[in-house]
Amino acid sequence: MTEIKNVIFDLGGVLIDWNPEYVYLDVFDGDREKMKWFFDEICTMDWNENQDAGYPLEKATEERVKLFPEYEEWIRIYYGRWEEMLGKQIDGTVAILKQLIDNPNYKVVALTNWSAETFPIALERFDFLHWFEGIVVSGTEKMRKPFNEIYELTLNRFNIEAAQSLFIDDNAKNIEAAEKMGINTIRFNNPTQLKSDLKSLNIEV
User: Cα separation of 203 and 205, whole Å?
Assistant: First the structure.
């Protein structure tokens, strides 16, 4: 395997704990079945990912309310209380990130599916986001993972080669897409597993 010179981090689920359950478990009084139905049928992950690709939050909300007027209150909560869905940083991964950033052998960047409208909130809240050499934000670029164009943009923007790069993400589809482009990958589960997987690639942290 070619020596790794570049590390590309996903953010949500890897370095930052984001979960709409933090809001909707309260909204639905702890009824997980009802909450699952809401995410499967009303404010779906596909719908949210459309905003990650640059679709305006207000427009998306109004269209969803028009489609499901009886659930207007719950729908407006999604982006109305979005900040409450943003949990804490994942300390173990942040510690690994710091070691990689401090190592002159690696270029460290980020590639995230994130709305351009909400990303400034994360930038203000998490200091470590300012450590990266650069961050590709899907909502700003009007494209998202797992589509090839955003991986190509990332490689080109930071002048890095796929074979010399490692992509860390918690989403299987995003990992598979990166692998098809010749990028080395680690699917993230937890910081301990990540540290072990990095070691197997001769990356000491």
Answer: 7
